[in-house]
Amino acid sequence: MRSKTRDKVLKAGKDLFNEQSTAAVSIEDIAAAARVSASDLHAHFRDKQEIIRALFDEYIHALDGDWRPAKDPAKNIAMVVKNLAELNKMRWEYRFVNRELILLVRADSRIRAAYQATFERRFSELRVLVQQMVLQDLVRVPRLPRTIDDLLMNVWLISDSWFSHMELTGDPTDADHANRVNDVLMVSLEPYLTDQGRELFEKFAQ
């Protein structure tokens, strides 16, 4: 059973990290924002880094197991549309993770290991899904020497780097700009959709 105090600390930490940065926020700031005592906070987390790790884990494990391909082509497209929308919400809710990703993995070997494990697992899941969608005449294979993995890597890089791009060129607090990432992803994906795949995407994206 989850502790209410632990949940309050994680929410406060997430809100502060999103508003400022992990470096700018102290564990005392988090305790004050969560309205818990230092001793209550330390009963769940030894230090700020443990809070960062817990939030990182929440973020990277979102949608675990939600990319399994179905036999019905329409269900696969509906799943992709739904998961992309959900990922957009998660990226915004945990935007400090994407914004500081390089710093986080450099500073903490456990976060680096967790990211690498998630990347390998999720990339494998997506490869199986796209291969199924090729067989279902929803997606075209890129022309050689490019591969399905190259297409997936392009999508992954856009997704992971969007908030860094916002930080450098726009307003990192603009939720509407954050939501544009899926439009940018579709620019990469659309040329590889078949007529059937495009028709289903348009149907479920409405």
How would you explain this protein's 3D organization?
The protein is mostly helical. 72% of the residues lie in helices and 0% in strands. It contains twelve helices and no strands. Helix 5 packs across helix 12 (195-205) and helix 7 (101-107) crosses helix 8 (109-135). The protein is elongated and about 60 Å long. The two termini are 38 Å apart. The model has no long low-confidence stretch (mean pLDDT 94).
Top keywords for this entry?
206 residues; 72% helix; single chain; mainly alpha
- Number of helix segments? 12
Distance between the termini: 38 Å
Shape: elongated
Unreliable runs: none
Architecture blueprint of SSEs:
Elements: H1 4-19, H2 27-34, H3 38-42, H4 48-60, H5 73-93, H6 95-99, H7 101-107, H8 109-135, H9 148-169, H10 175-179, H11 181-189, H12 195-205
Helix pairs in contact: 1-2, 1-4, 4-8, 5-12, 7-8, 8-9, 9-11
Describe what is shown at a glance.
The chain has helices at 4-19, 27-34, 38-42, 48-60, 73-93, 95-99, 101-107, 109-135, 148-169, 175-179, 181-189, 195-205. The chain is mainly alpha-helical and 206 residues long. Helix 5 crosses helix 12.
